[in-house]
Amino acid sequence: MNPTTTFVTLLRREFWEHRALWAAPLGVALLIVVLTLLSGGLAGSPVQIQVNGREADFILRMSGPDQQKFFGVVVAGLMVPQLLVSMIVLFTYLLDSLYGERKDRSILFWKSLPVSDAMTVASKATMALLVVPLLVYVVSVVVSLLIFVVLNFKFGGTPFAPLVAWHTGDWLVLQGVLLLNVLVAALWYSPVVAALLVVSAAARRATVLWAVLPPLGLALLERSMLGTRHVADFLGYRLTGFFDAMGVGFGREPGADVEAQARHVAMLYDRINAAPLLANVDLWLGVAAAVALLAVAVRLRRWRDDT
Fold it and tell me: Is residue 41 part of a domain?
């Protein structure tokens, strides 16, 4: 069988056996659209808006570059809920992907086929790092179009119209940036994915505990014995560093004035692009670690079949 055809079949296998991989992002997308339709009443119903002085001032100033930046932040933000849910699904998927086939003995069937352990492990890593994130990206493209159609239908002709104005050129550029972000995220999180695959290949049971307790215990041990938190900082950096680089989580103080709100939106917009992470040596060290860990996962699958 052609290696490319075999690899595609292995990817399709993952979707067959783990339907949450595609059902979760689609479900979140549907929920976002439904909530948008129901917000302020059913689609087409009149929307009553009350705006105080500060909010009115902020809306009136949303024109030109500020309006475009706000548009970009909203479009990018629509992708975040789907990503977060997909990350939770991928965590459970990766821990079950190699462990589950040993548990139900399906590994005997798959090893009887002319498919190498390396290709099997690579298909699971590719599913987590590229296929599912790209699916989330495609779904977010459709969601952003639907959301702004609904919002323009609801708020056109109201004081909120500038906030839902559509910018085709900015949308197209932003989609290119978000696609690049998906690829950068795949590189950044590759060691995390590879480490979870190692746990899945090695653990006899309770894969979640094996994935969580050793690093947590090591961090607590370091804290109690040395009073430092290098392990915790490293884990936090590797898990949230990608989102931190894009400014996700930077909030404004309650009651901030209009200028502060505008600066906050501009800061978020300027940091949407994760391309600067490509110049971060930690990203490439993580990729090297991921290659080594994937080799370990391949070797474990070859010899650790519990049969």
Answer: no
What is the DSSP-derived secondary structure letter of residue 254?
T
Spell out, as residue ranges, where the chain has pLDDT lower than 70. Answer: 1, 40-64, 66, 104, 107-112, 157-160, 162, 247-262, 264, 304-307
Measure the CA dihedral 71/267/78/80, to 10°: 170
Question: For residue 88, what are its two tokens?
Answer: 């939770």
Domain hosting residue 134, numbered range: 3-36+49-303
Domain assignment present for 15: yes
In a domain, 42, yes or no: no
What confidence tens digit (pLDDT) does each residue in 186-196 have?
Answer: 999 999 999 99
Closest CA to 122 of 185, 23, 193, 180: 193
Q: How far apart are CA 152 and CA 147, in angstroms?
A: 9
CA distances to 203, 215, 227, 228, 235 from 232, in Å: 23, 8, 12, 9, 5
Residue 207 lies in a domain: yes
Domain count, the chain: 1
